[in-house]
DNA sequence: AATCGATAGTTGCACCTACAAGCAATTGAT
DNA sequence: ATCAATTGCTTGTAGGTGCAACTATCGATT
């Protein structure tokens, strides 16, 4: 094994701060959605991805790719959203193993209702805390990290 | 309610990318530690915080503050680390409600063994993906977000 | 010193997620 | 046409975390 390259003081400071953000920000966003809309961030994100899909319908595995969720996880989340009336499952005619998940009217209404509060939280904790220049920097920096974290950009791709 | 201020295109791009990082990075760091060291990132962080404390000992609530954990969560994590032999509980002489948690020799050895791999992962996914200038930008940006997320900087403070 | 409220920590219960096993449908090779 | 391997999704089981309830102790007041 080669010698460990420890972090410099500047690197360490940046990392400690960034780690704190990684810990606190998701919790803060979740809290807003759970208290205001009774949705976890992941549930909201799932509904949001569906709402942006053409026809507001997606196959389960396509939705899993967009939300970076495992199939088992997504399957249960869909079940919950289904019993809340926000999504509906239907069979896929092309491949009878597959299931399509579609956003119901109630689900669409839920996204529309929840979006402003969520965006407001994103502004409060992130966007409005930064200058336009810093937002651009964050964008570039995030892209650089994503190249390492997700080389195939499965997370961002709208499906080839 | 006032009119929603939606995100501009640039803001939205930055946010989508940053969200992906928020989702992928913790999972990537966890994966390295779990597979290589059989420790969750939170367990590692707990041991690391203890290892940096004077005398490698801390009261449970002080440790909870440093790790941003609820007492119930930390209590159970300590129980696990204790049965693994990495930490030990002892009674606090000054306040008999409190418990001190100390790092054992085995716990210290575990941190020492795990640190290089973890730092290497941090480098691989974050530090080495960025220029020195970008690391400085990330540091400043994180600080700005933390001011909103954690106004009292409980997370970073080494306890007043 | 007796008491009431706050604090330190643990535990019961419910929920969410991961991993692995399972079932059904599809694809590819013979 | 048939069988084996793969794919799409669901479910059984185990483990981690949050919230609320609980015990024990401390501190302040009377």
Strand content of chain A: 5-15%
Order of helices and strands of chain A: HHEHHEEHH
Greatest contact pair?
A-B, 54 and 54 residues
- The 3D shape of chain A can be described as globular
- What is the alpha-carbon Rg of chain A in Å? 19 Å
**Count of DSSP strands of chain A:** 3
Instruction: Please work out how many helical segments of chain A DSSP would assign.
Output: 6
Q: Name the CATH class of the domain at 39-149 in chain A.
A: Mainly Alpha
Q: Mind sketching the topology for me?
A:
2 copies of one chain form a homodimer.
Chain A: H1 9-37, H2 41-52, E1 57-59, H3 60-67, H4 71-83, E2 87-91, E3 99-103, H5 105-125, H6 132-149
Antiparallel strand pairs in A: 1-3, 2-3
Chain B binds a DNA duplex (30 and 30 nucleotides) through α4.
Q: What attributes characterize this protein structure?
A:
Arc Repressor Mutant, subunit A; DNA-binding; 6 helices; mainly alpha; homodimer; three-stranded antiparallel β-sheet; 160 residues
